[in-house]
Design goal:
This protein is mostly helical. 62% of the residues lie in helices and 3% in strands. Helix 2 runs antiparallel to helix 3, helix 3 packs antiparallel against helix 4 and helix 3 crosses helix 10. It is globular. The C terminus is likely disordered.
Length: 345
């Protein structure tokens, strides 16, 4: 009963922030997409002077592309506008800018929200995570693939290229006709806009500008998604013990970033608030966090402490925390017991 009352209180405290405001949403479009276009054009002009002058502009433009993705993200949750149609239209447009199909991503991300931290419902819209028991019971090749997947160079270097440029170009086998058409429209929009820009600026200049912007935003985007769930004492439970509110409050971190980075990342660092209620627009996340003392009592990570997450690779179901590959040595003596337990379950 006490837990139920606590959950109701959290929901009551967050409810006032769930309503989108037209002026705030429109202003965010203006102060995000406008500067991104201006920075892209300035980067093109600067190429005639020096690429060293271009690079800083590309880093800032990459930051604004992350902010555009947050607008896309809110549209997928239908929290940016009250109108479903307005969210779909803007979501598709920003999806073309961020090379992510609106309907396809909305589906996988909704599954992520509904199952984050649920050990029995992993595999859609999340980071591949094995438990200690599963890892020890895996074949040599599966372990090697998992280690490769979890390698920072692969995850943050090759990962963005594969996910955004290849994986998102194809529909899911079970996708409906609306989702399929939206993916085709997004792909056509990407090819068309890239072709137009290549014609207007020259294909080589286009690659010099768009390539780094894509990599900067892609690496940062995957990092944000990774670090906000892959911290040491996160939350993972079997389906029978899984709790939505606990998954939101204990399995999603508060990434305490400098103000300018909170702004450029659309406040997604207040990830616990977002998971507790995806209907809160990004520009209301910080307000919700600051209003409630209860909502501030969550795992907090900083830029410095977040780097530790690179060492967290496997979930220990007994100690309920992430461990690294090096720590697996102490599990060797209990490996037969762990494997037997996994098969029995």
């Amino acid at each position: 009963m006490q837990r139920k009352e606590q959950q109701d209180n959290w929901r009551k405290e967050i409810a006032p922030f769930e309503k989108p405001h037209m002026k705030s949403s429109v202003w965010q479009i203006v102060n995000t997409i406008g500067p991104f276009i201006a920075l892209w054009y300035l980067a093109y002009l600067s190429l005639s002077i020096s690429y060293w002058l271009t690079l800083p502009l590309l880093f800032v433009a990459g930051g604004f592309l992350i902010r555009i993705f947050i607008i896309f993200h809110d549209c997928c949750h239908r929290s940016f506008f009250k109108s479903k149609a307005a969210n779909e239209i803007l979501g598709t447009i920003t999806g073309i800018l961020t090379v992510v199909p609106y309907h396809q991503w909305r589906h996988t991300h909704s599954v992520h929200h509904a199952s984050s931290g649920n050990l029995d419902k992993r595999g859609v819209g999340d980071i591949w995570t094995l438990t200690v028991e599963e890892y020890l019971a895996s074949s040599f090749w599966r372990r090697m693939v998992y280690r490769l997947y979890r390698n920072p160079i692969f995850m943050f270097g090759i990962g963005p290229i594969y996910i955004f440029l290849i994986d998102y170009r194809f529909n899911r086998s079970s996708a409906g006709w609306k989702e399929r058409i939206n993916t085709y429209v997004t792909n056509i929009g990407i090819v068309g806009s890239y072709a137009l820009l290549s014609w207007a600026t020259g294909w080589y200049n286009f690659l010099l500008i768009q390539g780094p912007i894509f990599l900067i935003s892609g690496i940062a985007g995957i990092w944000l998604f990774y670090v906000q769930h892959q911290f040491e004492e996160s939350y993972y439970e079997d389906n029978k013990d899984w709790d939505y509110v606990k998954a939101a409050m204990h399995g999603s971190s508060f990434y305490n970033l400098p103000k300018v980075l909170h702004w450029i990342t659309g406040n997604i660092g207040f990830h616990h608030i977002h998971h507790l209620s995806p209907r809160v627009p990004n520009y209301n996340l910080e307000k919700a966090h600051n209003t409630s003392e209860v909502l501030r009592q969550v795992q907090t990570i900083t830029l410095l402490t977040s780097l530790k997450s690179l060492n967290f690779r496997i979930w220990d179901t007994e100690k309920k925390k992430f461990v690294g590959f090096k720590e697996l040595k102490r599990y060797k003596t209990t490996e037969p017991i762990l494997v037997k337990k996994l098969h029995e379950s």
